[in-house]
Automatic annotation (TrEMBL):
Species of provenance: Flavobacterium anhuiense
InterPro entries from the UniProt entry: 6-hairpin_glycosidase_sf (IPR008928), 6hp_glycosidase-like_sf (IPR012341), Alpha_rhamnosid (IPR016007), Bac_rhamnosid6H (IPR035396), Bac_rhamnosid_C (IPR035398), Bac_rhamnosid_N (IPR013737), Ig-like_fold (IPR013783), Rhamnosid_concanavalin (IPR008902)
Protein name: alpha-L-rhamnosidase
Classification via Gene3D superfamilies: 1.50.10.10, Galactose-binding domain-like, Immunoglobulins, Maltose phosphorylase, domain 3
Residue ranges occupied by any Alpha-L-rhamnosidase six-hairpin glycosidase domain in the UniProt entry: 485-818
Length: 926
């Protein structure tokens, strides 16, 4: 199997330097990141993964050295911390306990370990971390073209977010050229006369910025810094520079600023209007020289600015660029800036300056034109082959002053022109040529969800009409967060394979500064998608440093009364249930738990326990006799009715079940954290809500909940609300309804996960298979048949607005946990111990998945062949797994061609193996 061979190859590459019987620490992390540049914690946590050539390998001890320089570390001098030998199998979340760490300082560390046989490893490769500056050390000065007071930007606000009413739209019209909203260039010359050892840059350009040193871009971010509620948190970025980034004598810092979510515009399309102030910059660079001296260059009144060639930039409306306004070499030495103006010192944003620890958004893929149609002379529509979030890159040639307008959209009208009606219009990019050969342009401060590009009044590749500009080349840039992928999945069922692809293209499109609902019309962080798709998100992507930023945003957005709004950051307040819905707000309780389960990291539970309590307490104020009745319910549940509010199931049933779940998880957190009083309070509350829920919604005669809908019956089973003596009857009623509906679902955005997992966890994976192995609506197959490349907002794409929505992607959890069988053990979080328990369903002949856990790569790959069930598994060093085989009690089992003895579980009807780390091939008769 090619998949398993690739696993073996990666293992071999990792352990080539490990001699037989040894173990080696790799992938060293500090605060869940490799070589982070802005560690805030005084006592950061360290960790590593382990590799070994042998099976059943584990760690029994470690020794860590932390040094003030790499030279000292290379000489085994841990002048900052030398742990000595510590006897433990722990290799993650090890709290630093050396000398007090200084701010704005880089430290170097390495580790060696002892294996289960007492053999010591070689030293790991060196790792590093840099501590963040104190805010007093930053002492930020914010600069720009105009003060907030002089900008006359609207100040209308509701509660703590900088939003204002649509009646104020007129104050925004034709304002994009004003200094309050115009993209500006800022520059600062400085001199370097000595040999540079290193330099560190701290920068926040709001809404977004591009930084250059001597004309060369620093970093690869798009849309930096990541979005926040700027009244609460302002992210800054940190970059390390080396001697090669500077030149002796004159040097120049250049910064380009755009609006982003900090300062939206009303021209063209916009979802809402928000301004925290005009574009603004904070900058600090500390240069260290070889002679030990230091120099600081920072934002102050000595900088200069000029309007940039970007004449319009809106995160919702598009971007315009006039190449005739370019000032060649403005970011380099020798440029004459006599016509540039002195910057003004601006009012600082209200939010606390925090280092951005989540990964940046970057250009991840680029697509060429797939097909092109000339609808009429010089009127072209290009199919780029993939619906995505991003922007085009164009190469054009023509006369000075000619312009090209680039329209983008997800779909097409009947006549073949682009259709923006569902996704927000008008949205476009304008480029004005300077008439200097072939010109290339890529927008910087606006993106959209699109697959098709429409350009009128052009030649394409050939100069047929001399009076028109010529499009020489067109590319589509796919942008999403650079957190990286953690897993992969494939199987013998093409519907499931294509479904996995559709969902992940949609996740990537919406994996931006926050997880958004869609990359065009709203770009808002609706919270329910995170918790309802949480396991699928974490199986597919590395979210160790992203979810902490999400929780900071949730904490920032929590109201004084405890309400967690449906969207975070809350740039716009919709009001009513669209601001306050328990299924959305409870994400602030669920997410820290999911994070703990998947990464074994208790830090979010510790830090945000007050947020969890406060939200559950808030729901208590909305409850009557422990019943909560507001919210959106099972949003977009399926039926003949129009999508929207829950129609099939009671909203109160949904709201109350999530009130219970919030109280239950808060009690679990309190117990884990040793908060006895809180545990007793929330455990009792959960019990009271459970009793009230069953009294209000359960019919003992029919053994049904609520309206007898699939959502009504699945939720109490999943959340363990149903009393044990009734569980089987409720389950049978649920199955009967599914069968009556032709093996089709009736749940919605909220209910899908509970339905899917209720079936998966209760031995009904065949029902799951039938429910999704078809090309009808509701079902993923209908979207595949429709020819889409991303998941849409509704099962029938023709009915919904967005064609790039991962809201309905909850089946990813089933792909990894059930079909491939990789399942965490809640008693050993972070996959310290886990289960491999694949489900062989329908006519499937194989399934395979791998997952990069915090301990290392886990892999499960099974196939049915010649009457045999063959399972290949990989178990990381220092972990163990329970293998549950879907074969009879009498089936003979071989592991790596040797006979093995397994126990048999009568309840599950599966043979059970307990295995330590290693790579295994398990073969048995079906």
């Amino acid at each position: 199997m090619k998949f398993f061979k690739s696993i073996l190859l990666s293992v071999c590459l990792l352990v080539t330097i490990v001699s037989k019987g040894q173990i080696l620490p790799v992938r060293l992390i500090t605060e869940m990141a490799e070589n982070p540049l802005a560690v805030v914690e005084n006592k950061p946590r360290l960790g590593w993964q382990l590799v070994s050539k042998e099976s059943n390998a584990s760690q029994i001890a470690y020794l860590i050295l932390v040094a003030s320089s790499e030279e000292k570390l290379n000489n085994d001098d841990g002048d900052i911390w030398n742990t000595g030998r510590v006897n433990t199998d722990k290799n993650l979340h090890i709290v630093y306990n050396g000398k007090p760490l200084k701010s704005e300082t880089k430290y170097f560390w390495k580790v060696k370990v002892w294996n289960q046989e007492g053999k010591v490893s070689k030293w790991s490769k060196n790792a590093s971390f840099r501590t963040a500056p104190l805010e007093s050390d930053l002492n930020p000065t914010w600069i720009g073209a105009i003060t907030k007071a002089d900008s006359h930007l609207p100040e209308g606000r509701t509660y703590h977010t900088a939003t204002f009413n649509r009646e104020k739209k007129n104050s925004f019209i034709n304002a994009s050229d004003s200094l309050a909203r115009r993209s500006i260039m800022l520059r600062k010359p400085f001199e370097v006369e000595k040999a540079v050892k290193e330099a560190v840059v701290y920068i926040s350009g709001l809404g977004h910025y591009e930084l250059t040193i001597n004309g060369k871009k620093v970093g690869n971010s798009q849309f930096a810094p990541l979005w926040t509620d700027y009244d609460k948190t302002v992210n800054y970025n940190v970059y390390e520079l080396s001697a090669k980034d500077f030149q002796k004598g004159d040097n120049v810092i250049g910064v380009l600023l755009g609006n982003g979510m900090y300062n939206t515009l009303a021209e063209r399309y916009t979802k809402f209007f928000v301004s925290f102030g005009p574009p603004t910059l904070f900058f600090k660079m500390k240069i260290k020289y070889n002679d030990g001296s230091e120099e600081i260059v920072k934002s102050d009144g000595t900088w200069k600015y000029s309007k940039s060639p970007i004449t319009y930039n809106s995160i919702f409306g598009g971007e315009d660029y006039n190449a005739n306004l370019e000032q060649k070499g403005w970011g380099n030495k020798g440029f004459k800036d006599r016509d540039w103006k002195k910057v003004v010192v601006q009012e600082a944003p209200k939010g606390v300056l925090r280092p951005q620890t989540a990964p940046p958004v970057t250009i991840q893929k680029q697509y060429e034109v797939k097909t092109v149609k000339e609808l009429k002379p010089n009127f072209y529509v290009f199919d780029m082959g993939q619906n995505l979030s991003g922007f085009p890159t164009i190469k054009v040639k023509g006369k000075r002053g000619q312009s090209i307008r680039v329209w983008v959209a997800e779909g097409l009208n009947e006549e073949g022109t682009i259709a923006q009606g569902r996704s927000g219009k008008p949205y476009y990019y304008d480029y004005t040529l300077k008439g200097d050969g072939i010109e290339e342009w890529t927008p910087k401060f606006s993106y959209y969800g699109y697959q098709y590009v429409q350009i009128e009044n052009i030649n394409y590749k050939e100069d047929k009409n001399k009076e028109l500009p010529t499009l020489v080349d067109l590319k589509s840039n796919f942008i999403y967060n650079s957190a990286g992928e953690a897993g992969s999945f494939a199987c013998s069922n093409e519907i499931f394979n294509k479904t996995h692809e559709l969902i992940n293209n949609s996740i990537k499109s919406n994996f931006q500064s926050v997880f958004t609902d869609c990359p065009q019309r709203e770009k808002l962080g609706w919270l329910e998608e995170i918790q309802l798709n949480g396991p699928g998100l974490m199986f597919n992507y590395n979210l160790q440093t992203f979810f902490p930023a999400t929780m900071q945003n949730i904490s920032d957005s929590q109201r004084d009364n405890g309400l967690i709004p449906t969207i975070v950051p809350e740039y716009v307040i919709f009001g009513g249930d669209f601001t306050d819905s328990p299924e959305w707000g409870v994400t602030g309780v669920i997410l820290p738990w999911m994070y703990y389960e998947y990464y074994g990291d208790v830090s979010l539970l510790e830090k945000y326990f007050p947020v969890m309590k406060k939200y559950v307490d808030y729901l208590g104020t909305k409850a009557t006799n422990n019943i909560v009745s507001h919210g959106l319910g099972d949003w977009y549940d399926y039926g003949t009715h129009a999508a929207g509010y829950s129609k099939n199931s009671p909203i109160a049933l949904s709201a109350t079940s999530h009130y219970y779940y919030g109280a239950y998880l808060t009690a679990k957190a309190a117990k884990l954290l040793g908060k006895t009083e809180d545990f007793e309070k929330y455990n009792a509350l959960a019990s009271e809500i459970k009793t009230a829920f069953n009294k209000e919604f359960f019919n003992e005669e029919t053994k049904q909940y609520g309206t007898n809908s699939q959502f009504s019956n699945a939720v109490p089973i999943f959340m363990d609300i149903v009393e044990p003596q009734y569980k089987e009857a409720v389950m049978q009623n649920l199955l009967a309804d599914i069968k009556e509906k032709g093996d089709r679902l009736t749940t919605g955005d909220v209910g899908n996960r509970y339905l899917f997992q209720t079936l998966a966890q209760n031995g009904e994976n065949e029902t799951m298979f039938r429910m999704h192995n078809h090309y009808d609506a509701p079902g993923y197959g209908f979207q595949i048949k429709f020819g889409l490349t991303t998941l849409t907002e509704q099962w029938d794409p023709r009915k919904g607005n967005s064609w790039n929505h991962f809201m309905l992607g909850q089946i990813e959890e089933w792909f990894y946990q059930s079909l491939a069988g990789i399942k965490s053990d809640p008693d050993k979080p972070g996959f310290k111990h886990f289960f491999i328990q694949p489900e062989v369903v329908g006519d499937m002949t194989f399934a395979k998945a791998e997952y990069q856990s915090v301990y290392g790569k886990i892999a499960s790959s099974w196939e049915k062949k010649d009457g045999k069930f063959i399972l290949n598994v990989r178990i990381p060093v220092n972990t163990a797994a329970t293998i549950k085989l879907p074969v009879s009690k009498s089936s003979e089992i071989k592991i790596n061609d040797k006979r093995a003895r397994a126990s048999f579980n009568e309840k599950d009807k599966k043979q059970i193996l307990e295995l330590g780390s290693g790579v295994y091939t398990i073969e048995c008769q079906l």
